[in-house]
Each structure stands twice: as C-alpha cells, then as structure tokens.
Amino acid sequence: xxxINHFDTINKPLLTLLLLPYSLLKILxxxxxxxxxxxxDLKNVRKVYRMGEEKIMALDDVxxxxxxxxIYCLLGTSGSGKSTLLNMLAGLEKPTSGTIIFKGQPLExxxxxxxxxxxxxxxxxxxxxxxxxxxxxxxxxxxxxxxFRKIPKRKRIVAAKAMLKAVGLANRAKHKPMxxxxxxxxxxxxxxAFVNQPQVIFADEPTGNLDTKTTYEMMDLITGIARERNxxxxxxxxxxxxxxxxxxxxxxxxxxxxxxxxxxxxxxxxEEKRSDIDEEN
Amino acid sequence: xxILDVVGLCVRSLIKRKLRTFLTLLGVIIGTASIVLMMSLGxxxxxxxxxxxxxxxxxxxxxxVRSAQWGRPTAGGGWSQPDDFVPDLDDxxxxxxxxxxxVLVASPIIQGNVFFRxxxxxxxxxxxxxxxAALAQMGYTLQHGRFLEEGDEFAVVFGALAELEFYVPxxxxxxxxxxxxxxxxxxxxxxxxVINDQIRLSYDRRLAPWWSGxxxxxxxxxxxxxxxxxxxxxxITTFDLDxxxxxxxxxxxxxxxxxxxxxxxxxxxxxxxxxxxxxxxDEQEWWGIFSPIPGVRERVTYDNAxxxxxxxxxxxxxxxxINEMGFWAEFPGDWIxxxxxxxxxxxxxxxxxxxxxxxxxxxxxxxxxxxxxxxRTKEIGVMKVIGAAIKDIRRMFLLEAVMIGILGGIFGxxxxxxxxxxxxxxxxxxxxxxxxxxxxxxxxxxxxAAEAVVSLITPSLLLLALGVAAGVGLVAGYFPARRATKxxxxxxxxxx
Lengths: 281, 496
Ligand SMILES: Nc1ncnc2c1ncn2[C@@H]1O[C@H](COP(=O)(O)OP(=O)(O)O)[C@@H](O)[C@H]1O
Ligand SMILES: [Mg+2]
What we know:
Helix content of chain A is 39%, strand content 25%.
C-alpha cells in the first residue's frame, strides 16, 4: 500500500463491501495459480486538451486494468493517445475525468509531492530519447533514482554497478552519455529505470531512435529483466513488431481502446526471435 | 536526497559551466572584497578614534553645560555672538535635559569653599555640589559606604585621593596633593580615616593656609610655630561632617579627578551663603565697612550643569539638542567627534558604493541561475520523472546559488586581505584624508597616527562578509529555484 492516507475521502467499510466480490474472485484465482493482482485500475478515463478554443480529446472513456508482473504494449498510430495514457499512469498528468487507481489509491487525488514519492518508490521510466544527464557518468546516472531515495552511498553504488552489469555495460561505468552510442545510452537508461526495483516500468517508444538490430536487443533486455523480476512493464509503441514481446497488447485509436489481445506464444526466447529476424532479412 | 548529494551535483554543474561560473564568481568576489575593504577603512579609523579618546582619558558620556550668555566657541577657534535670547540655566532647564532620550541624569554643579578639620589635620576644600541622585550616575564606583541620598545634611562622598588634601597647619609642609605625581598613589599613607575619624566642617575663613608657615595671614611678625592646631582653626560655627562614602579611582592617568568631594547641592548652597555672610561680618569687623553685596541664599540660576548619557552614541546628539535649546554644551574631545563624523560621511558613501557592487553581483547570480534553469529545463523534467522531490529540485538550485555566494565570499575575503595589506604597507595618497588627525603630540597616550593602520580587518568582519555573500546567493537563487520547482515535468521533457 502507498504510505499515504488515501482513504480519507472514501468510506472505507463501504469500499470494502463493494470490493468484496472482487476480492473473493481474486483469492479464488490465486488459489487456481493464476496471477491476477491488479496494479492499475482505470475507470472511464478521459483527457481533454484545450488549444485555445479547440478541444482535443486525447483519451475518451478508457477503462482498463493492469496486472502485476505482466508485460503490456500500448499499440497505436501517432497521435492516438498512447503517451497520454502512459503519462497518466506515471502520475505525470491528471485525467480530465475518471479515475486511475493504483493499488487502491486514486492517483489523481495525490499532491505534487505525493506523486514525486509515488514515482520514487514504485515507478521506473524509459524515454525514447534516453534523457541521461549529460554531466553525470553512466554509473552516476544509474544511481540518481537511489540518491533521490536517500540510499546510502556504498549501497547505491553496489546496486547501480550490478544493474549496469545486467544491461551489459559494466565496462562503461565511467563514461559520460556523450561517449556512448545510442543503444548504450538506452541501456543505461534501462538500468536507471530498473535500479530502484520498481513495481512498474513505463517505456515510451523506447526503441524509436534505434536501428532494427538494436531494437530487438533492447526489447530482449527490457522484457527479460522485467520477467525475471516479475515486474510490470508498459511499453508504448506504434510498431507491431514490438508488440509481440508483450503478454497483452492494447490497441488504441483516437483515444479509445480498440482491442485487447493476449499473445499466447509470447516471444521469450532470444534465439527464436533472432531466427525470425534472419528470416525477414 | 541528502545535502551532501545535492552539494555533489551542484559542484558538477558549476564545474561544467566553468567560464560562466567564473564570471559570476568574479562579480561576487569583487563585491565582497570591496565591501570588506571599505568597512575595514571605517573600522581602522574607528579603532584609532577610540584609542584617541582613551588616550585623552575623556569620559565621553559626560556633557558639561553652561549658559551661552557670552556666546559659544566656534570651530575656527573664535567666539560666536551671543544669541538674542539666552535661556537661564535653572532647575527647569536641567529637568528638561533629564527628559531627553539617552540621558541618564542631569544635575547642576556648583563649587563651594569649605573647611574640614580632623585632629591636627585641616583641609581647605573646594566641594562639588550636585543633586544627590546624580552622583550615583556619574560613572563612579564605591570603595566604601554609599552615594549621596536625598535628605543627607552635612554628608559628603570623598574621591579616592581627596584625603591627600589634609595638611598640618602648624608645619610648613605642603598638602600632599601638591606633589601627588611623585607619590605611589596606590599605597598612600592615611592621615585621616575619613570614614571613622571625626571630621568637623566649617564655612568661615579662620584657617591658617599652609603657605603662611604656621602664621595667620597678616600676622607675619608673630611666631605661632609652637601653637596648638586649635589656634589655627577657629571657626565661628562648626558642624559634624559625615563621610558617607569613598569612591574608587576613576582614571590612572588623571589622578586629579579622584580628589573631588561631593555634597548635596542644596546644603552646599546654604553653606556658601553662610560663608559669604560671615565674610561680610568679618570685613565689617576688620575695616568697619559692611559689604553692600549680600549673598544669594537660594540660587535660581547656575553657572554649570552636567548631563550624563547612557552611551557614547548619544553624546553628540544630546549635546547638539542642548545647544539648540540655547545653552553651551561641551564634551571632552568633541572636536574629535566632529572629525569622526565628517569621515563617517565619506565612509558611508564608500560602503554604499561597495554595496552597489554586491547588489550587481546578486543580480548576476540571479541571471546565471535563471539561465541555468532554462538550460537545464529538460534535465529538471527528467529528474522529476525519475523520482526527484520538489524539495530536491529547489535545494539543487538554491544551493548552487549559495555556493557561488560562499565561494565568491571566500575568494573575495582573500582579495580583501591582500588589498588591506597593500593599503597598510604602501603609501596611497588619496587615503590620507581617511587617517585620523595627528594628535600624538597634543594628547598624551594617543597612538602615533603614522604607525596606525589605514585598513583594519577583524575576524568578525570576515565572518560577516561571508554571511552576507552566502545570503546574497540565497536571495538571488530564490526565484530561479522556485521557477525550477514550478516546471511541469512533461512540458520540461518535451522542451529542447
Ligand atoms: N500537452 C498537450 N497539449 C495539447 N494537445 C496535446 C498535448 N499532449 C498531447 N496532445 C494531443 O493529444 C493527442 C494524443 O497525443 P499523444 O498521447 O502524445 O499521442 P501518441 O503518444 O499516441 O502519439 C494528440 O492529438 C496530441 O496532439
Ligand atoms: Mg507518443
């Protein structure tokens, strides 16, 4: 649970009563060995941007759930509202109407500093353009989230080094972002997103600036780590090739959920994927 | 985020933009150095003036007031025309002085000539008459007893060395105070135990002066050498004197100030009147004429009054108010004060100019920080997304500004120390005007102006400067830091 008093506006016994059938179902499903812990619960989320007189409906009545430990892909064309949805999940934007409940807590009710705390504790973020701090070395960039969390120096350096090693950049720790290739920078960025051991990682077009080969390396890496650690991953992309990495693909069009498909044969094996690429070439 | 980590990030960001940091620092360095230097000039002059005053031994908190019926001395050494209307220096005026802010006490002061005798010793004393309450406020401390009180009759308070004025009338030895310079004043031999011995007081002049060689004035032929002391002290009326207190020494360098004897002004006035009446009777007896000028029993105006202020800072102001009221107020070393004030004007101007340079430095810091925030908008957005609290962002920018302030302060202090050294060790013509007047030969104990420093930097001045520099950084960094915290993370990331 969030360390924030989030029930102050809600009648707690009533809520418990309302959620009782759901809770019972959850217990049943758990007993059945199916992992269904809901991390995010979106209800009728709407986002309207005002551009002067004109209104842009970026999201239109979206209701979705995100479960713990699954990999999601938000798939859609440019301007369909994927990023808007992702940003709202990350607490960077508030819905115009509707609610986004994270582990029982409506995110839109949190203050700026509570949201900062939420991101610090639960969220990792991978950007399309890496967004590493240019003055800091690769290692320091990875330690940054831990610095914000006041983790003691020795501890955070150990954690950051291990993370860099996991993304295959152990020997680049002292390099500044400028001295790294795009792919390497994105690896650092991934290390930075995972170092905190967040429950959910958001990646907005993480491979948008990379070539095809690096794209698959990066997807292998990011999904591999997330699966290994049973973390939830939400990837935004317009590329159907990438959607095959996800357990569940949420197609978005014009701000609405068009379809939700579960991938049965999710690509988990790198070799298999590689051979796919070879076939294509 | 811990402070140490914030410092680390700030240092990086400052190093990254070396040239800009350096230029901003330069502003603070120059600002701090000029403030410290300008203030050091003031502190040096102040220290020298203080030494000067001390050398003069002047108690700058005592203002002496006289009637300005003959005008006042002018700065040029002349004498001014009397005012058209000259107010009386009377009890009402003195009470008015007492009401002025900063004044501890005001009292008229008169001198009266009376005679004391104790055993074989006598004294021809000039006693100071003051209001009983005033004595306790004159800066004295007590060795024995108490100060004067309302209702005391023939009570006096002896200065520490007043006892030296007792002499033996039948011998031709001088009263000891005549060569007190040669005496060990800390260990004087007591002729009279003023507290315990009986002392008689008289007002009429039937006392052989010490220089008559034991003869009464006018009777040179007669030899009184073998006579009893009583023969030389034959007053008509005597009173029992009560020495209620003995004062401590006030000033080693001015032993004459310790010979004062204080009495209630109203008792002394009465005695003085009696003395003059007795004198008239004497004159009648000797020459058969009765002096036509009677004494004044109750004086309505005084020749002198003194005002004591609570600190040296009030002296000048109170003195000028009293002058404006139409009296002639003076305090020891007021000519030094005039000079000091003139120089203070110049110094305030210099400090103001230095303060402007510090203000420019502050604007410079603010400008640098705003540029920094604008430049790093994207970074700020990224940091917010990956978990920086608003507090962290604010601290980052605030601390960066404060660090520029502190760093500039430290280097500025270094520069000011070098500057101060140069000012003190090289002759710089235009600073001559800032030196205090050369009074080394006029006033004993005053420092020689030639060896006095032009610029004096104290540790507290340095600390103050460092604090001011850090404060300047803090103030200058406030709005840029606020701007950084107010940035929307998303908008910041999208910006380039
Ligand atoms: N800050 C904003 N102000 C105005 N319109 C916006 C803003 N952000 C997004 N939009 C609009 O909302 C729609 C969805 O944008 P977005 O979520 O970024 O799309 P996607 O990520 O799928 O390309 C677009 O039409 C876009 O122009
Ligand atoms: Mg997008």
